[in-house]
Amino acid sequence: MKFSCSAFAVLLLASPLVAGPALADDDGHQFPKNTTFSTLIKTPLAIEGLTSDNRGNLYVPGRRSAPDMMNCPVWRIDIDNPALVEVGFIPGPCSPSGLAFDRAGRLYVTEGDKIYRFYPDAAGKPLASVFATGVPGANGVAFDEDGNLWTGDGTTGQGRVWRIDSSGTPTEMFRIQPMANEVNGAVVVNVGRDARTLPPGTITVTATGRSASNTLGSQPLVANGVAFDDDGDLIVADTARGALWKVKFRHDGTVRSRMGCDTTFTANTLCLENIFVAHPLLEGADGIALDRAGNIWVDANERNAVVVVTRNGKDVREVFRNAPDAVTQLRNGGPLEFNTSPVLEGRKFCTSNSDGNRRDNSPSSAGEIPGGGFVGKISCMDQRLSIPGMRLPVR
Questions:
Q1: 351 contact partners, CB below 8 Å, separation of at least 6
Q2: From CA 383, how far away is CA 369, in angstroms rounded?
Q3: The pTM is what?
Q4: How confident is the model at residue 12 (pLDDT cuts 50, 70, 90)?
Q5: Sign of torsion, CA 330 333 338 340?
Q6: pLDDT tens for residues 252-262?
Q7: Is the per-residue pLDDT at 236 higher than 90?
Q8: Omega before 324 within 30 of 0, i.e. cis
Q9: How much is the CA Rg of the chain, to the nearest whole Å?
Q10: What's the rounded Cα separation, in Å, for the pair 129 and 108?
C-alpha cells in the first residue's frame, strides 16, 4: 500500500509517568529524573535506525517486508513541527538499519550487505546509490575523525567490524568475540554460550528448575550500535552480553587494543579485557549515542529502557523504563515499544521504536503500534538534557 505525506498523522500524545533515578555524571551534572516520554510521530512502515543533522531534524528510513519490492523512503522530521517528509529512497527490496551523515551532508544508510548514500532532497527525492558492498549484516554506522565509515555485522553473530574508506572499500579491522566458537572450519562446536531471549524462546518452569522447552530466541548479536567518543575510541554495543566494548587505535589507524588472546578465535578477535562495561541493565543494548561530557546513552530495547553509562564506565543507571501494567504486570504498553536507536539532538533525547516481539515488549500487540495503519514511531523525552548531545560526525 502506498502512503502519501498528507496521510501521515502527527501525534503528540502524553505518555505514562515513570520515575527515573537521579544520576550525576563525572562533573556532577544531574541527568533527568521523573522522566517521561511522548510520541513525536508515527510511521506507516517499520523503522529501526535514527539520526539527526544537528539542525533540529531527525532522519529515519522505512522498511518494506517481502514480497513488497517498492523502494524504501527516508523521512526527515522537524522535531519542533513534526511531519514525515520524504527526502530520498533506498532501492527495494529493502530493510534499512543504521544511518549517519558525513561532513559533506551526504546520508549513508545500511541495507543488507550494502551501504547506500545520497544527498537528502525533499524536492528531488533521489534514489540512493551504492557506496560500499561486502559488509554482510551491516547495522549501526559511525564516522571517525578521518572521514572513514565504520559498521558492525549485526545479526550474523560473527562480531566483525569494518572500516570503510572514502572510496567505499571495506577492511575488517577486528572482531568482537562471538558468543559461540567456530573451530577448524566447523559451523559451531558447542564451545561458548548461547543467550536466548524469552519470548520467542520459552522455558518450562517447575518447582525444581527452569529449563528450555524449545530452541527459539537465540541472540548472537555482539556488534550492534557503534559510536566514537572525543578521544577517538570506538564504542560498540554488545546486545547478547549486555555490554559495551571500547576499542583504541594507534595514530596510523591500526587497532591498539589487544587481540588474539584466544587462539580458537580469529587472530583479530578482541581480548575480553576490552569490555568497557557489562551490566544487566544493558541487556538488549542496541543503538548508542554520546553527549558532550562523554556519557553513553543506550537503548536497552529488550527491557524497554534507556540506560546511561558515565564516561569512566563506573556508573550504569537506568534513566527510564516502562512501568508494568497494573493488570497484566507487563511492560509492553509503552511509551517505549522496543526502542532501537537513540539520538541526542541538542538537549533533546529521541529514539525510534521498532515494536519487536521480544522480552519486555511481548506481546507487541499492546501499546500505540501497531494500530491505525502505523507500525513504527519516534518517542522523545519530555525533559531537556543538562548536557547536549555530541555533534556528529566526530571532528
A1: 50, 287, 299, 306, 336, 339, 340, 341, 342, 343, 378, 379, 380
A2: 23
A3: 0.90
A4: very low
A5: negative
A6: 999 999 999 99
A7: yes
A8: no
A9: 20
A10: 10
